[in-house]
Amino acid sequence: MASRLELLLPWCRLRFPVSGTSQTRRALGRPRLSQVRLSSTEAAAQRAPGREEADSKVGTRKKTFSEVQAERLEQAQRTVLINCPAKISEKKFLTYLSHHGKINSHYFYESYGTYAVVEFSEKDSIASLQDVTRTPGIEEECAVPFKSRLFTLTLKNPSTQAAHQAPVHCHKQSTILINDLVQKLCSADSVSNQLYTLMDEYQLTEENTKLRFLVCSLIQDIACAYFPECTVKPFGSSVNTFGKLGCDLDMFLDLDEIGRSPTRAKTGPFYMEYQMKRVPSERIASQRILSVIGDCIDNFGAGCVGVQKILNARCPLVRFSHQPAGFQCDLTTNNRVAMRSSELLYIYGSLDSRVRALVFSVRCWARVHGITSTIPGPWITNFSLTIMALFFLQKRTPPIIPTLDQLKDLADAEDKHIIEGYDCTFASNLNKIKPTENTETLDVLLSDFFEYFGNFAFNKNSINIRKGKEQNKPEPSPLYIQNPFERALNISKNVQEKQLDRFVALARECAWILQQEDKGHSSLSNSQPWGLAALLLPSVASNCVKGKKKRGQASERIKSLLDSLKINNSESLVNNGGKRTFSNQTQ
Ligand code: CTP
Ligand code: MG
């Protein structure tokens, strides 16, 4: 008899024959490339050393998204941010702060000065610290007397106190330079390990995650002046497992607790309700709230600079930089669906380590080649790219991750979420989702990702992670990715044909590069970037431009060229000063 889990998980039981291309793919190749599909344990054994650390976090990741959020938000309320001299005795610093209560953890980092993030064991310690903290003297510019948890600590006698002091150890808050990354990738022993190395370098650290929750908590302190029951929660890449060091901090001002009315008393002759201002729509309410909170952040928020109120956007927001934290913040309200999509991505990112490794690499690749941008515009966004990668992983045989509909089938009563009329129901308990039996290596997945999207029928098909199937496009946007919850929306509506064409051309070029390396046809010497490192080089993009490959047409040409390569690769491949091109593509 099938177990209950199996019945709940039809997607796990699906078995399709392994595709011929993938099976035969790793026949030749560099010795460092894995040549056969590995079992899960073998694959695990071949991963980069950093992976063990990430895998041991599985225990932590098994917590639900809401549990992690609640835990970290509570932790953030017991935490303070202190600007301090770089040369300071860590021991004396901790002893000084310990007078206010037990310290659970602390770390230093650099951003426009040296900062310490100090987590107390009790919230009361902060009040005790605030009691002995003075407001800035009048000899300085006039200060707005809003007392926050952002402090400055100075030395009483800087010349003597700092003289023989070494600077404190600072935790990294940003990614390494791309050239250093490329070098590091080259010393990995397989493409798979290159992807894990990139992820280890790029992913948010524990410290940076704490800082993100702390910034939410500091903004919550400001909003609480008007709405004492509100919470400010991070969403988007800061918490969906796909965040890169330096990514923006998306914050959600949650006022739901205020709106939640106690059940009407059945006894007694009266009803009592608040008198409140009424506005024509929820959107207008959000705009007004954000406008006031935006002004408060601008006027009272220590460290918050460049505050912009972008209230006419589809989702109104307040944007600013948190200078001490060193990242950009976007504050929204009435954005519950985005919170749910962050949870969905969190689930996908926590299911299998290959998911995050692939998404990080594809996101990095796209950024390096200007496919994505930090400026809003007609580009593919990181969010769209992530959904594309998830869709690709749903299409593997067997699938690496379940479809959204399959996650919905696993949902319990408490997972049911209908938000603004949209069904956002899916299982939140990771333990209910049976791990995939797919054992493909990231070598294969990366190469196939590029091949898959290099040949995807974007002109007629849409991407749908709810069904895990391509569907006919309901409207002619160049790229159509169905919003998983607000199903009538295309999350990539902004993308223009030209940008999509660049993505496709680069994907084809990269698929080709990886396939050639795999077949041992690489014309590059071993000292030159290979695998993922080669895909990050600017020459990849310039080769695309040189080749002037047109979609459709080019696809056929590449296929026939690849066929001819099989017959006589030495004639078709030209090593043009390290830049590889097909001889008849450069005209
Ligand atoms: N979002 C959405 N629909 C969109 C754009 C965004 O639902 N069309 C939601 C997603 O949950 C997304 C979050 O809003 O994760 C934040 O959006 P954004 O900051 O653009 O993307 P991130 O995933 O945070 O990626 P990045 O690192 O580029 O900020
Ligand atoms: Mg974001």
UniProtKB/TrEMBL annotation:
<dbReference type="InterPro" id="IPR054708">
    <property type="entry name" value="MTPAP-like_central"/>
</dbReference>
<protein>
    <submittedName>
        <fullName>Mitochondrial poly(A) polymerase</fullName>
    </submittedName>
</protein>
<dbReference type="InterPro" id="IPR043519">
    <property type="entry name" value="NT_sf"/>
</dbReference>
<dbReference type="GO" id="GO:0000965">
    <property type="term" value="P:mitochondrial RNA 3'-end processing"/>
</dbReference>
<dbReference type="GO" id="GO:0042803">
    <property type="term" value="F:protein homodimerization activity"/>
</dbReference>
<dbReference type="Pfam" id="PF17797">
    <property type="entry name" value="RL"/>
</dbReference>
<dbReference type="Pfam" id="PF03828">
    <property type="entry name" value="PAP_assoc"/>
</dbReference>
<dbReference type="GO" id="GO:0005524">
    <property type="term" value="F:ATP binding"/>
</dbReference>
<dbReference type="GO" id="GO:0005739">
    <property type="term" value="C:mitochondrion"/>
</dbReference>
<dbReference type="GO" id="GO:0097222">
    <property type="term" value="P:mitochondrial mRNA polyadenylation"/>
</dbReference>
<feature type="compositionally biased region" description="Basic and acidic residues">
    <location>
        <begin position="49"/>
        <end position="58"/>
    </location>
</feature>
<keyword id="KW-0479">Metal-binding</keyword>
<dbReference type="GO" id="GO:0030145">
    <property type="term" value="F:manganese ion binding"/>
</dbReference>
<dbReference type="GO" id="GO:0000287">
    <property type="term" value="F:magnesium ion binding"/>
</dbReference>
<dbReference type="InterPro" id="IPR002058">
    <property type="entry name" value="PAP_assoc"/>
</dbReference>
<feature type="domain" description="PAP-associated">
    <location>
        <begin position="444"/>
        <end position="487"/>
    </location>
</feature>
<dbReference type="GO" id="GO:0071044">
    <property type="term" value="P:histone mRNA catabolic process"/>
</dbReference>
<keyword id="KW-0808">Transferase</keyword>
<feature type="domain" description="Poly(A) RNA polymerase mitochondrial-like central palm">
    <location>
        <begin position="192"/>
        <end position="349"/>
    </location>
</feature>
<keyword id="KW-0460">Magnesium</keyword>
<feature type="domain" description="RL">
    <location>
        <begin position="64"/>
        <end position="133"/>
    </location>
</feature>
<feature type="region of interest" description="Disordered">
    <location>
        <begin position="39"/>
        <end position="61"/>
    </location>
</feature>
<dbReference type="GO" id="GO:1990817">
    <property type="term" value="F:poly(A) RNA polymerase activity"/>
</dbReference>
<dbReference type="InterPro" id="IPR041252">
    <property type="entry name" value="RL"/>
</dbReference>
<dbReference type="Pfam" id="PF22600">
    <property type="entry name" value="MTPAP-like_central"/>
</dbReference>
<dbReference type="GO" id="GO:0005654">
    <property type="term" value="C:nucleoplasm"/>
</dbReference>
<dbReference type="GO" id="GO:0002134">
    <property type="term" value="F:UTP binding"/>
</dbReference>
